[in-house]
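ARCHIVE CARD
CATEGORY: sequence design from structure
SOURCE FIELD: tokenized fold
FIELD CONTENT:
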């Protein structure tokens, strides 16, 4: 099974959407909350090059944010990564 890291904030609706899609796919993921944690936020920025949440990684590959995850799924590219 794929190793999935997702950086999130509690108040982020895009984070909830991304997690809902992963849950719908039956994918287990490691949620990394960056709320009030500057060090973890900096780690996310270093890994992704982006400052917004969510930031999603599958097996170390940066997928992007919520829209990127849904686009990957629409193109049929998400399921093979989760297998």
């Amino acid at each position: 099974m794929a190793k999935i890291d997702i950086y999130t904030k509690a108040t982020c609706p895009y984070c909830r959407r991304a997690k809902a899609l992963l849950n719908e796919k039956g994918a287990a993921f490691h949620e990394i909350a960056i709320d009030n944690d500057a060090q973890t936020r900096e780690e996310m920025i270093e890994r992704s090059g982006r400052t917004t949440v969510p930031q999603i990684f599958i097996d170390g590959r940066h997928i992007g944010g919520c829209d990127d995850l849904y686009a990957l799924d629409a193109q049929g590219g998400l399921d093979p990564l989760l297998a």
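CARD ANNOTATION: The longest helix spans residues 13-24. The chain has one domain: 4-81.
SHELF: design records, drawer C
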